[in-house]
Specification:
The complex is a heterodimer.
Chain A (H helix, E strand, L loop, with lengths): L7 E5 L2 E5 L5 H8 L25 E6 L12 E2 L9 E4 L4 H16 L15 H9 L15 E4 L3 E4 L8 H8 L6 E4 L6 E4 L12 H5 L5 E3 L12 E6 L8 E7 L2 E7 L13 H6 L7 E5 L23 H4 L11 H4 L16 H4 L31
Parallel strand pairs in A: 1-5
Antiparallel strand pairs in A: 1-2, 3-4, 3-5, 6-7, 7-10, 8-9, 11-12, 11-14, 12-13
Chain B lengths: L17 H6 L4 H6 L4 H11 L11 H6 L9 E7 L8 H8 L1 H15 L1 E8 L4 H16 L15 E6 L9 H8 L23 E5 H13 L1 H5 L2 E2 L2 E2 L2 E7 L5 E5 L5 H6 L13 E5 L8 E2 H5 L11 H4 L3 H4 L7 E6 L4 H15 L5 H18 L5 H14 L7 H25 L1 H6 L17
Parallel strand pairs in B: 1-2, 1-4, 2-3, 7-11
Antiparallel strand pairs in B: 5-6, 7-8, 9-10, 9-11
InterPro entries (chain A): 2Fe-2S_ferredoxin-like_sf (IPR036010), 2Fe-2S_ferredoxin-type (IPR001041), NADH_UbQ_OxRdtase_ferredoxin (IPR054351), NADH_UbQ_OxRdtase_Gsu_4Fe4S-bd (IPR019574), Prok_molybdopt-oxidoreductase (IPR050123)
Cofactor (chain A): [2Fe-2S] cluster; [4Fe-4S] cluster
Pfam family, one (chain A): NADH-G_4Fe-4S_3
C-alpha cells in the first residue's frame, strides 16, 4: 500500500471534518451531513463538469487555508471549489450567504411557472424543496414569464422548457451517459433553451436517465405523466437481469400496478446507478421484477408524511450553529400541507385507492410481504399479472 | 502634448503594408527579442509595469510568469480581439491601421511564452479586419518573421486568425477559449485558470490587442524606459476611444498625465462638449464601469483633480469613483436621460448574457423590464429599490464578470442619479414626451463652453 494520504481539515459552520485533497466544499459538507450541506440544483457528483451554474450552493470562505488564512473576496460556488487544509467555510451561519441564496432562488423562480399543483414533478421536485427552504413567500416579478410549447422527444420523454432552470444536467447526461450529441442548449441568456437539434428523437438506450437527473418537471416520463401523483405511489426497490444496465431500480407502485420505474436515488437526490430505457419504460409488470423491499425514505422525500427512516438528524452542535434559531427542515412541510397522512412504510403491501379513501389498512392482495423485507421473486407466483 | 509610442506612426501613408512598416523601424522588436532568452523578455515586460488593457488592468508580466510550463505540453498565446464593449473601439483602430504592430507584438510574446501556435480571436463583425490581418500575416511569413526557424533561432511560430460569431461573452477569456475550441461560448468556472488549463487543456495566456501591441515599444525602449512614461503604477500609454456628445470623437493615445478635464475640453483630445451644451455625466472606461456625474468626474471626493490614470479614475471606489476599464470614454451632455441610457445598457447585457448561471440569466432580463417600465412612465417608487436589490444580488454571485458588468452601471446610475429615476415616476407623461433628464447635474464646475 502506498503511504497514507494526508487529509485536509475543513471547518464548515463550526463542524470540522477530514477530507481527501481535491474534495470540493460541497462534498465535504455532505460528509458532515445534516443541514450544513448547501443545496445544489445543477451539481451532480456523477456527471463530470456539472455544477457552478445555478449558484444556490454559494458559501463564504472565511479563511482560505492555514497557510493563507485570508478570506475569499466573493462568495464561491461550493460545488466547484476544492478545499484547502485549514479552510473555514460559512454556510448557514452567515446571513450574507442566506441572503444571496434567497436571491438565487428568486432568480430561479422568476421564469418558472408557479403551478406546482398541475405539475407532474410536484412532490419530488428539487426546486420545490429549495424554494420552501430558502425562498420567500411571494414573488416580486410582475411581468410575463417566458413560455414554450411542449415537445415530445421520442416516444418516452416529454420536454417542457417553460419549467426548465437550465442546470445543464441533462446535457451532460446525454453526452456522458447516453453518449450522443443530439441534445444541447440553443440560444443564450433568458431565452436559452434545451433542445434536440432539429427536434431529433433521442434514440440512445440510456437517454431515459435525463428524466432522473432533471431537478424540475422539464423532462418527464411520457409513460407516467399524469397517471398519478407521486405521493400516492409507493416506492419499492427491485431488480431484474438486464443485458445493458445493472437492472437495479425503484418501482413506484399503486395497488398491484407498477406505475413508474426510476433509478434508485440516494439521499442527495442523485441516482446510484444509471438504468436503461428497457428497464425504465418497458417493464411495467410486477412479474418482470424481483422485489427487494420497501425503499427507505430519506430527507429528500416529501412523499411519506414524515415517516422517514434514515433521516440524517442535525448534529448536537446544530442549535449553537444556528444561534438558537430552529432549523427549518423539509420534513416540517407536513405542518404546512397535509399531503398524505397514510404511513406507507408500515403498510404490508402497496397502497390502493382505498388506502387513501378512509381505509388506511387496505393494501394490494397478491404482493409479497415487503414489510418483513425478505424479498421474493414474484415471477411465476403471481397468477393474475404474469401474462 | 502627450508622448505617443503606439500611434506615433499611424499617419504614415501605407503603414498597413509590410514594406512601409519595415522601413519605419518595424520588426526591430522581434530582432531584439529573439536574441534574448524568453525569460528575459518576460522580465523586461515585468519591469515595464504594463497592465492589461482589456479592462481589469492586471499586470501583464505577472500574468506571463504564472504560465505553467509542463514538459511535452504545448503552450498557447491567444490574442483577444473580440472587442465588443459598447463605447470601446480602440483595438479596431489598431488592427485596421497598424496590423503589423500587433503581429510584431504577437511574435515577441510568442517567443517569450514559447507558443508555436498563436491565435487571434477576432470579433465576427470585424470581417474586413480579418482580411487585413491575414494579409499582414502572409507578408510577415514571406519576410521570414513567421513560420519555421524564425531569424535562424530555430523557433517556429504561426499565427491564425479565428472569427467569432458576434457574442459579447466570448470576450471573456475562458468563454473565448471555449469558442476557439469550437464549443458553445460559455465561460468556464475558475479555477483552474487558463495559465494552468486553457486552450485544449494546455497552459494559455489570453491578452488584449493593445496589451500585445504595447510589447513592441517595451522591447524597443526597454522596460525601464517604458515605465518612465505615465504616472506611478499607470505606466506607458493608453488608447482611449472617446465617443458621445463631444466635438471630436475618436481614438486618442494618452500617456496618462492628462486630467479628465483636459481630456474632455482641450482641443488636442475631445474638444469639448458638442453643440455648446454642458457636461452632465461620463462613463470613463466602457459600458461596464460605473457612470460618474460631472462633479465627481472632474474632481475626486477628496477634491483633487481626477487624472486619466488607473488609480485616479478608481479613486473613492465605487461609491464615488469608477474604473479605467477598456478605455471606452462615453460622454453625456445635459440633454441625455440617464434612465434611458441605463435601459439601453441593460438591454445590451440581457441580450448578451450567456444564460449559464441563474443570477445573470434571469436578473439581467428582470432589470431591463423594470427599467423599461420606468422609462415609459409606468414605474413606481418601489421599483427603484427593487432594481437596487436585484443588482446587489447579481453582483459577485456569477461565474464570470458579465454579471458584475451588468450590475455596476445600474447601481451607479441609481446611486448618482436617483432623483432622475424618481422624476420619471412622478412625471410619467413628461417622461414619455420629453427625453431629457434633469439638467441640474450638469457642469457644477461651470467650465465655460460656447
Amino acid at each position: 500500500m502506498s503511504e497514507e494520504k494526508k487529509l485536509f481539515k475543513v471547518t464548515i459552520d463550526n463542524i470540522t471534518v477530514d477530507v481527501e485533497p481535491g474534495t470540493t466544499i460541497l462534498m465535504a459538507a455532505r460528509k458532515i451531513g445534516g443541514d450544513v450541506v448547501p443545496p445544489a440544483m445543477c451539481f451532480y457528483s456523477k456527471l463530470q463538469g456539472s455544477g457552478g451554474k445555478c449558484r444556490t450552493c454559494l458559501v463564504r470562505v472565511a479563511a482560505g487555508s492555514t497557510a493563507d488564512p485570508r478570506p475569499m473576496p466573493k462568495l464561491v460556488a461550493s460545488c466547484r471549489t476544492t478545499v484547502m487544509d485549514g479552510m473555514v467555510v460559512e454556510n448557514i451561519t452567515n446571513p450574507a450567504v442566506l441572503e444571496a441564496r434567497k436571491g438565487v432562488v428568486e432568480f430561479l423562480l422568476l421564469n418558472h411557472p408557479l403551478d406546482c399543483p398541475v405539475c407532474d414533478q410536484a412532490g419530488e421536485c428539487d426546486l420545490q424543496d429549495l424554494s420552501y427552504e430558502h425562498g420567500s413567500q411571494g414573488t416580486r416579478y410582475e411581468f410575463k414569464r417566458r413560455t414554450f410549447e411542449r415537445i415530445d422527444i421520442g416516444p418516452y420523454i416529454q420536454l417542457h422548457m417553460t419549467r426548465c432552470i437550465l442546470c445543464y444536467r441533462c446535457v451532460y447526461t446525454a453526452n456522458q451517459v447516453a453518449g450522443n450529441r443530439d441534445h444541447g442548449v440553443l440560444d443564450r441568456g433568458d431565452h436559452a433553451q434545451i433542445a434536440t437539434y432539429v427536434e431529433k428523437a433521442l434514440d440512445s438506450n440510456m437517454i431515459g436517465n435525463v428524466i432522473d437527473v432533471c431537478p424540475v418537471g422539464a423532462l418527464t416520463d411520457r409513460t407516467f405523466r399524469f397517471k398519478n401523483r407521486v405521493w400516492f405511489t409507493k416506492p419499492v426497490d427491485a431488480h431484474r437481469n438486464c443485458s445493458c444496465c445493472s437492472g437495479k431500480v425503484r418501482l413506484w407502485m399503486r395497488g398491484d400496478d407498477v406505475l413508474r420505474v426510476t433509478a434508485r436515488k440516494d439521499q442527495w437526490g442523485e441516482v446510484e446507478e444509471w438504468i436503461c430505457n428497457e428497464c425504465r419504460f418497458e417493464k411495467k409488470k410486477v412479474s418482470d421484477w424481483v422485489i427487494e423491499g420497501n425503499t427507505k425514505l430519506d430527507r429528500h422525500s416529501v412523499i411519506n408524511a414524515g415517516h422517514y427512516t434514515n433521516v440524517v438528524k442535525p448534529k448536537e452542535t446544530f442549535k449553537d450553529v444556528m444561534k438558537g434559531r430552529d432549523p427549518k427542515l423539509l420534513m416540517d412541510i407536513h405542518e404546512v400541507s397535509q399531503v398524505n397522512t397514510v404511513d406507507l412504510n408500515v403498510l404490508p403491501g402497496p397502497a390502493t385507492a382505498a388506502t387513501f379513501n378512509g381505509n388506511p389498512n387496505a393494501t394490494g392482495t397478491n404482493v409479497t410481504d415487503v414489510k418483513q423485507g425478505t424479498g421474493r421473486n414474484l415471477a411465476g407466483t403471481d397468477t393474475t399479472n404474469a401474462h | 502634448m502627450g508622448r505617443k509610442v503606439l500611434l506615433d506612426k499611424a499617419h504614415i501613408e501605407g503603414i498597413r503594408y509590410y514594406d512601409v512598416y519595415r522601413k519605419n523601424g518595424g520588426y526591430a522588436a522581434v530582432e531584439k527579442a529573439l536574441k534574448m532568452a524568453p525569460g528575459d523578455v518576460v522580465e523586461e515586460v515585468k519591469k515595464s509595469g504594463l497592465r492589461g488593457r482589456g479592462g481589469a488592468g492586471f499586470p501583464t508580466g505577472m500574468k506571463w510568469s504564472f504560465l505553467a510550463k509542463p514538459e511535452g505540453v504545448p503552450r498557447y498565446l491567444v490574442c483577444n480581439a473580440d472587442e465588443s464593449e459598447p463605447g470601446t473601439f480602440k483595438d479596431r483602430y489598431l488592427m485596421e491601421f497598424l496590423p503589423h504592430l500587433l503581429i510584431e507584438g504577437l511574435i515577441v510574446a510568442s517567443w517569450a511564452l514559447g507558443s508555436n501556435r498563436t491565435y487571434i480571436y477576432i470579433r465576427g463583425e470585424y470581417a474586413w479586419i480579418v482580411d487585413i490581418l491575414e494579409q499582414a500575416i502572409a507578408e510577415a511569413n514571406q519576410a521570414g518573421f513567421l513560420g519555421k526557424n524564425i531569424l535562424g533561432t530555430g523557433f517556429d511560430c504561426q499565427i491564425y486568425v479565428q472569427r467569432g460569431a458576434g457574442a459579447y461573452i466570448c470576450g471573456e477569456e475562458t468563454a473565448l477559449i471555449e469558442s476557439l475550441e469550437g464549443k458553445r461560448g460559455n465561460p468556464r468556472i475558475k479555477p483552474p485558470f487558463p495559465a494552468i488549463k486553457g486552450l485544449y487543456d494546455c497552459p494559455t495566456v489570453v491578452n488584449n490587442v493593445e496589451t500585445l501591441a504595447a510589447v513592441v515599444p517595451i522591447m524597443n525602449l526597454g522596460g525601464e524606459e517604458y515605465a518612465k512614461i505615465g504616472v506611478g503604477k499607470s505606466t506607458g500609454t493608453k488608447l482611449i476611444s472617446a465617443c458621445g456628445n463631444i466635438n471630436k470623437p475618436g481614438v486618442y493615445e494618452i500617456d496618462m498625465t492628462q486630467s479628465v478635464e483636459e481630456f474632455i475640453f482641450s482641443d488636442e483630445y475631445c474638444g469639448g462638449i458638442a453643440n455648446g451644451k454642458r457636461l452632465k455625466a461620463c462613463i470613463p472606461g466602457g459600458s461596464s464601469v460605473p457612470i460618474l456625474p460631472a462633479n465627481l468626474l472632474l474632481k475626486t471626493a477628496k477634491g483633487e483633480q481626477r487624472m486619466m490614470t488607473y488609480e485616479s479614475l478608481a479613486d473613492g471606489g465605487f461609491p464615488t469613483g469608477s474604473m479605467m476599464g477598456s478605455g471606452g470614454f462615453i460622454v453625456l451632455d445635459e440633454d441625455q436621460c440617464v434612465v434611458r441610457h441605463t435601459l439601453s445598457l441593460a438591454r445590451f447585457y440581457r441580450h448578451e448574457s450567456c444564460g449559464q448561471c441563474s443570477p445573470c440569466r434571469e436578473g439581467t432580463g428582470w432589470m431591463e423590464k423594470i427599467l423599461t417600465k420606468l422609462e415609459y412612465g409606468k414605474g413606481q417608487m418601489s421599483d427603484i429599490d427593487l432594481l437596487w436589490d436585484i443588482q446587489r444580488k447579481i453582483e459577485g454571485n456569477t461565474i464570470c464578470p458579465l454579471g458584475d458588468a451588468a450590475a455596476w452601471p445600474v447601481a451607479a446610475a441609481i446611486r448618482h442619479f436617483r432623483d432622475e429615476f424618481e422624476w420619471h415616476v412622478t412625471h410619467p407623461e413628461e417622461a414619455q414626451v420629453r427625453n431629457f433628464g434633469l439638467a441640474h447635474y450638469a457642469d457644477p464646475l461651470e467650465v465655460a463652453v460656447g
